[in-house]
């Protein structure tokens, strides 16, 4: 968390006011958040299932990223009835479900242009 008097905080707030894209990117910013959202959309809705799908993420980081996604109302945590101990599943909200095709489009865009792939002058319009 940045200090409210810091230049970085002031600049961030300015950018959020200028364009909603900056706010949207801030919500999903993080190494694992997009993968977590996509994993949940594919049915991996329990902590251990997400961790199996993303084996390189630590429990601490996964828990923090899930909490941040919950704070931004991209997902909710639901108790699974009649489980001992109480089971938890993660469910995408409408906001989270609307995000999935956007992430898929960004993935497609990345397949074309990421990692130093050349962009020809003809492909720029």
TrEMBL record:
A Pfam family this chain is assigned to: HxlR
Domain HTH hxlR-type residue range list: 19-118
PROSITE patterns: HTH_HXLR (PS51118)
SUPFAM superfamilies named among the record's database cross-references: Winged helix' DNA-binding domain (SSF46785)
Coiled coil start-end: none
GO molecular function terms noted in the UniProt entry: DNA binding
Keyword terms, alphabetized: DNA-binding, Transcription, Transcription regulation
Keyword Manganese: no
Protein name, UniProt field: Transcriptional regulator
Organism: Pseudalgibacter alginicilyticus
Lineage: Bacteria, Pseudomonadati, Bacteroidota, Flavobacteriia, Flavobacteriales
